[in-house]
Amino acid sequence: MSLLQEFKAFAARGNVIDMAVGIIIGAAFGKIVSSFVGDVIMPPIGLILGGVDFSDLAVTLKAAEGSTPAVVIAYGKFIQTIIDFLIIAFAIFMGLKAINSLKRKEEEAAAAAPAPTKEQELLGEIRDLLKSQQQK
């Protein structure tokens, strides 16, 4: 099998396609969350803290000199990224929790199938005896 054929077989599998769709949706979701945090959550928090703009919070280690940019530690952007992560992690947690509860309900429904009654067991034994006698 050539390398191209192997790649086609690999790429055509359902799991790979599902994963690709998940990555694309995840990237789009990440952009939405980043916008939500940066444009909706952080401005009121900054206002409550005295008009602080988190994206501007930074420590300058070395000032800009000529065409050389300043060296800064942008901890405000880091705080914003942490909040992005927490929101995404919480959304994933809630999604998995919902999926797990659905699986649990299915398992409970399957496990709750009633055991055969004594009469059903006896009828099954009679059926098996009749089948064995017919085969002789």
What report would you give on this structure?
- The structure is a single chain.
- This protein has 136 residues and is mainly α.
- It has one domain: Non-ribosomal Peptide Synthetase Peptidyl Carrier Protein, Chain A.
- Helices cover 74% and strands 5% of the residues.
- It contains four helices and two strands.
- Strands 1-2 form a two-stranded antiparallel ribbon.
- A hairpin with an 8-residue loop joins strand 1 and strand 2.
- Helix 2 packs across helix 3.
- It is elongated and about 105 Å long.
At CATH level 2, the architecture is Orthogonal Bundle
Order of helices and strands: HHEEHH
Q: Quote the beta fraction.
A: 5-15%
CATH homologous superfamily label: Large-conductance mechanosensitive channel, MscL, domain 1
Secondary-structure-based class equals mainly alpha
Count of domain modules? 1
| Count of individual helical segments | 4
Number of strands: 2
**Order of strands across the widest beta sheet?**
1-2
> Approximately how much helix is present in the residues?
over 70%
Shape: elongated
Enter the CATH topology name.
Non-ribosomal Peptide Synthetase Peptidyl Carrier Protein, Chain A
Biggest sheet: strands, sense, closure?
2 strands, antiparallel
Termini Cα gap: 53 Å
Write down the overall mean pLDDT: 84
Task: Round the Cα radius of gyration to an integer and report it.
Answer: 31 Å
GO cellular component, one term: plasma membrane
Keywords: Cell inner membrane, Cell membrane, Ion channel, Ion transport, Membrane, Transmembrane, Transmembrane helix, Transport
Subunit structure: Homopentamer.
Function: Channel that opens in response to stretch forces in the membrane lipid bilayer. May participate in the regulation of osmotic pressure changes within the cell.
